[in-house]
Specification:
Blueprint lengths: L43 H7 L1 E7 L6 E3 L2 E3 L1 H13 L2 E7 L5 H6 L5 E6 L3 H4 L2 E3 L4 E3 L1 E6 L9 H6 L12 E5 L3 H13 L4 E5 L5 H10 L4 E5 H10 L3 E6 L4 E8 L3 H14 L3 H12 L1 H8 L5 H4 L6 H8 L6 H12 L19 H7 L7 H18 L6 H14 L1 H14 L7 H11 L3 H4 L12 H22 L2
Parallel strand pairs: 1-4, 1-5, 9-10
Antiparallel strand pairs: 2-3, 5-13, 6-13, 7-13, 8-11, 8-12
Organism: Algibacter mikhailovii
InterPro entries: Lysozyme-like_dom_sf, Solute-binding_3/MltF_N, Transglycosylase_SLT_dom_1
GO cellular component, one term: cell outer membrane
Length: 484
């Protein structure tokens, strides 16, 4: 967690203590393991009825990651659009490694595995693969000689593998039961000789294996060309020019019996691949190598460093004064200002925690652009709001009331409580679907003009979305942190 990503060759990928010699156990196989239980019956209509699409992802520098508190990634952006097309909310489920993917998919922890997997014949026997999102090919990842900058091109080439035939009797490190291992096995049949396969632990990703080649910890690995090219841009001592396969499909994975979801996804993939939007997203993560390099070398690439922002230490310091953890406070600060200490709203709220001028004056804050002053004032104000909701017995509910009060003003939330009492149509101590519904009603004149409602109109959807977004981001932050 304390590794710094500016340690160029090690911090980006080498996050696990497992060595490449550790063999993969039978239960670590993601999609080919015959012991995985059959799929639950939960298809498109059930997803629509639930209102949530649960997508399983594996974090990485192109697929899914959090940078300066913001959720990003090729798969993530496509998932957002796919869920929106279905008309449901997206819920991200982060897998620590590849070993659980098949099990989690079939037992219903997720509805889809959003990662670029090759649909091999053996995998297709037990799982359904979407129409491909992009084509790739597998390439050999190898390290240039240490003095490569002093050598001429032909001298470098003379010290590298230039054809797969040159891998005979050499060792290549890949995850067991990956498409890379299958390709090496097929390659041995094709060339009629032996390539030694070092099967590494399932919690070591391809990204990390590439990093291990760069540092010299392993000699070779195999990777998809798109991924390999991106890392070769970051690690100048890598060569990824030798192909080991023809073009291959990169697809998402679904339960075998999810025929409705599969049909819908395939139609959607065909449509979106004909849009400019798709290619903007693809280029952002697979072509714009400079931007990705900036992300993964940053101290605030959460997947690697455990850091959300430049202000984590201050957030942790002042979160101690609150009855909830620093990660939730960080999620709120991102919601308020995206960690920009100079952010200013149309209503003149200012700083990391968007303190209103009147609130700043009341709290004695002179400089709301100061990160520490803003966080100190914001947490003090949150504590005041927390104390106003002592009547809420459940701690988690009370936090939601407090956050909503910070956003909309406590008096509007109190009006929502009053409206429930007047209408006798909900539980005044429960946020979800109760106070939420009451706040929505206060958007309409017939409700906010009722006797007993003191503060009138409120744009009810705003505090509802505010609380929802903070909690969703909080859950994602925690999943990434726990996966490290």
């Amino acid at each position: 967690m304390k590794l710094q990503t500016y340690l160029y060759l090690t911090a980006i990928f080498i996050l696990f203590s497992c060595t490449s010699e550790k063999k993969l156990a039978e239960h670590d196989i993601p999609f080919d393991n015959p012991s995985i239980a059959g799929p639950i019956n939960f298809d498109l209509e059930a997803i629509k009825k639930r209102g949530v699409l649960k997508a399983i992802v594996v974090s990485g520098p192109t697929s899914f990651f959090i940078y300066r508190g913001e959720t990003m990634g090729f798969e993530y952006e496509l998932l957002e659009r796919f869920a929106d097309d279905i008309g449901v909310t997206l819920e991200i489920v982060v897998a620590k490694d590849f070993s659980v993917l098949g099990e989690w998919l079939n037992n219903g922890k997720g509805d889809i595995v959003a990662h670029g997997f090759t649909p091999t014949l053996s995998r297709k026997e037990r799982f359904t693969f979407s129409n491909y999102l992009y084509l790739t090919k597998q390439v050999l990842v190898q390290k240039k000689p240490d003095n490569w900058r002093d050598l001429k091109l032909h001298e470098i080439d003379g010290m590298l593998k230039n054809d797969v035939i040159e891998l005979i009797n050499d060792t290549v490190s890949v995850r067991a039961n990956s498409s890379y291992k299958m390709r090496l096995e097929n390659l041995m049949d094709e060339i009629g000789d032996v390539i030694h396969i070092d099967e590494v632990n399932s919690n070591i990703t391809t990204d990390e294996l590439i990093g291990m080649v760069s540092t010299g910890e392993i000699k070779y690995t195999i990777a998809d060309n798109t991924l390999a090219q991106m890392h070769a841009y970051n690690f100048k001592n890598l060569d990824v020019s030798v192909p080991v396969s023809l073009s291959q499909k990169a697809s998402w994975v679904l339960r075998k019996n999810a025929t409705g979801l599969s049909s819908y996804l395939n139609e959607w993939v065909s449509k979106i691949k004909n849009t400019t939007d798709y290619y903007v997203i693809y280029n952002r993560y697979y072509k714009n190598k400079r931007t990705i390099k900036k992300h993964i070398k940053s101290d605030y690439f959460l997947n690697n460093t455990g850091k959300l922002s430049p202000y984590d230490d201050l957030i942790k310091k002042y979160a101690k004064d609150l009855p909830w953890d620093w990660v939730l406070l960080a999620s709120q600060i991102f919601q308020e200002s995206r960690f920009n200490p100079n952010a200013k709203s149309w209503a003149s709220a200012h700083g990391l925690m968007q303190i209103m001028p009147s609130t700043a004056k009341e709290l004695g804050v002179l400089d709301t652009s100061s990160p520490e002053e803003s966080i100190k004032a914001g947490t003090r104000y949150l504590k005041q709001l927390w104390n106003e909701w002592k009547s809420i017995p459940d701690r988690n509910e009370r936090i939601k009331f407090t956050l909503a009060s910070y956003n909309a003003g406590i008096n509007h939330v109190k009006d929502a409580v009053t409206l429930i009492k007047l209408n006798k149509d909900g539980n005044q101590n429960i946020w979800d679907e109760n106070i939420e519904a009451s706040l929505l009603k206060l958007t309409y004149r017939k409700h906010y003009t009722k006797p007993g409602i003191k503060y009138g109109y409120v744009h009810g959807i705003e505090p509802i979305s505010y609380v929802k977004d903070i909690y969703e981001r909080y859950n994602l932050y925690n999943q990434i942190l726990e996966a490290q």
